[in-house]
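Design request, tokens follow.
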């Protein structure tokens, strides 16, 4: 007669108890969202999540889509989501999202189930090297011995997760992996006497945050030296993607007034919206700088860069003509971002702290001749937008600028979409939050990321995603997630017949251009929407857009709008705009 706790049953019981303890400890340390892809080896982890009432979990079949979904959740909440999947190539499907999380400084926890050591290197099924799979993309990795070889201890588990939580957030947020080998049997025969929610331990003392002392003598010396190198000289402030505090914008404007300089605000800085339009903040520089580049004059002698380097290539081209003598990168919880090697010095400090301290150490200047050309070119670009020249992508962005409700979340695909937003989406007082996967700027997983953002955004707040036709095609199975996330979601696919960004690059002159670079997707987006029961609307000309788009944005149900753009006409519109600024 079989006893309730035979040796075989004991192994399965340890697997489950270990997993229950891991999940409960994560919850106690602040991680309660889990994205699970089904599989066998991860069974104890998945069951521990499903039976814990304090978790939120989503089951997504495709591991690549699941990872980008979790990435979107972490982007929106600034807190890590945990991923769970089985062993083998399933784990490898996380790699694109892990790369993006690394380069975009987004916390992501990877709980990868694995085979035990005796099944590696012998041809066993679904057994690959997983603990080194992501290499330098991780902030930390924890390859564990098979869980049945250690006793699941509350103290040791808490110590492990405390270390993991630090790696996820400090000093730069990013992905962390715990690789967990399980031996079979994965579960006990009976779940009797299983405590699904262990008694919590007394809370540990909070880990002190890593602080940068801005008032230290070394900081004061650095800022005094900076004042000497920039006082009375023409300069600019660049603001790229970063997590800025609510007080940063006013501090930034005060610094720009004191130094009498313009602020070039990348759209992903999210500094263009949520405040009354300010003349110091420039939004059309990607087009207007072409005039200065052509003339090869009016260059800054100093630059202060906050966050990532802006996505506009014309900023880099302009600065490369006459590199500034002083180029300060203010870095804070982001990976190093100086792709053109401009920097002469760097400070690790919160941006708003830097601005407050800088105002104390820097003198006020007056440089009207430096600022006037920027103001004139900005006004010229704005006038072009209002003179009825709106066509194609520009017309769509103008309509969105006018009709997006306050607090809307806007997601942009890569390639031309984000560049058009950079060049054509100006300041507005109504708040707006823009997202994009610009860490590695990949085309993969964009719709899954959108759905992850939607799942952690209050349902009453609209979310609009602008995706190119290739971008949507590349993540088409994520349409299955649209109804799972709920809320007001509008997907706008800009169908311009493939990779239109290559039309502005040297491959466009080659006879193989369409087959090797443009690669228009052969897909009926209406049928794709129908397959997943998503409302579909096709807008084929500019007259329909102002009539239909505002109404569609108010509709609460998910919808897919196909905005059909003539590729050649789009290229002409861009050329006309750039030529008008010469």
């Amino acid at each position: 007669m079989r006893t309730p706790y035979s040796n075989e049953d004991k192994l399965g019981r340890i697997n489950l108890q270990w997993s229950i303890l891991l999940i409960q400890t994560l919850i106690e340390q602040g991680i309660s969202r889990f994205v699970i892809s089904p599989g066998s080896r991860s069974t104890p982890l998945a069951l521990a999540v499903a039976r814990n009432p304090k978790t939120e979990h989503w089951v997504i079949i495709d591991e690549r889509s699941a990872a980008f979904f979790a990435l979107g959740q972490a982007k929106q909440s600034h807190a890590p989501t945990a991923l769970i999947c089985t062993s083998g190539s399933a784990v490898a499907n996380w790699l694109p999202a892990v790369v993006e999380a690394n380069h975009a400084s987004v916390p992501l926890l990877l709980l990868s189930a694995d085979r035990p050591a005796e099944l590696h290197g012998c041809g066993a099924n679904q057994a690959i090297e997983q603990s080194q799979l992501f290499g330098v993309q991780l902030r930390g990795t924890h390859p564990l011995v098979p869980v049945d070889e250690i006793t699941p201890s509350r103290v040791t588990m808490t110590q492990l997760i405390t270390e993991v939580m630090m790696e996820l957030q400090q000093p730069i947020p990013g992905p962390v992996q715990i690789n967990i080998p399980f031996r079979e049997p994965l579960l006990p025969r009976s779940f009797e006497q299983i405590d699904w929610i262990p008694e919590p331990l007394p809370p540990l003392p909070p880990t002190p945050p890593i602080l940068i002392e801005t008032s230290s003598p070394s900081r004061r010396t650095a800022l005094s030296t900076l004042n000497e190198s920039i006082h009375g000289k023409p300069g600019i402030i660049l603001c790229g993607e970063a997590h800025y505090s609510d007080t940063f914008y006013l501090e930034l404007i005060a610094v720009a007034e004191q130094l009498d300089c313009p602020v070039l605000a990348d759209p992903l800085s999210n500094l263009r919206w949520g405040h009354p339009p300010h003349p110091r903040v420039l939004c059309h520089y990607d087009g207007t700088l072409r005039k200065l580049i052509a003339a090869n004059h009016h260059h800054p002698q100093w630059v202060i860069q906050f966050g990532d380097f802006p996505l506009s290539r014309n900023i880099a081209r302009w600065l490369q003509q006459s590199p500034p003598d002083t180029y300060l990168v203010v870095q804070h919880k982001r990976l190093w971002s100086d792709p053109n090697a401009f920097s002469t010095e760097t400070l690790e400090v919160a941006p708003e702290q830097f601005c407050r301290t800088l105002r104390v150490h820097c003198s006020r200047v007056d440089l009207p001749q430096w600022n006037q050309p920027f103001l004139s070119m900005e006004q010229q670009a704005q006038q072009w937008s209002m003179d009825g020249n709106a066509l194609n992508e520009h017309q769509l962005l103008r309509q969105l600028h006018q009709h997006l409700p306050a607090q809307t979340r806007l997601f942009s695909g890569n390639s031309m979409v984000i560049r058009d937003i950079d060049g054509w989406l100006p300041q507005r007082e109504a708040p707006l939050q823009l997202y994009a996967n610009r860490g590695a700027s990949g085309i993969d997983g964009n719709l899954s990321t959108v759905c992850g953002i939607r799942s952690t955004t209050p349902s009453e707040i609209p979310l609009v995603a602008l995706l190119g036709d290739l971008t949507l095609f590349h993540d088409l199975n994520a349409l299955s997630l649209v109804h799972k996330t709920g809320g007001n979601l509008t997907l706008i696919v800009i169908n311009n017949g493939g990779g239109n960004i290559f039309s502005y690059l040297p491959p466009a002159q080659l006879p193989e251009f369409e087959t090797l670079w443009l690669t228009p997707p052969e897909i009926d987006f209406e049928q794709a929407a129908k397959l997943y029961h998503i409302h579909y609307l096709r807008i084929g000309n500019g007259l329909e857009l102002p009539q239909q788009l505002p109404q569609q944005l108010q509709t609460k149900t998910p919808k897919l709008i196909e905005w059909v753009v003539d590729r050649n006409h789009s290229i002409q519109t861009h050329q006309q705009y750039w030529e008008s600024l010469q």
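Comment from the thread starter after seeing the answer: thanks! Confidence is low (pLDDT under 50) at residues 208-215.
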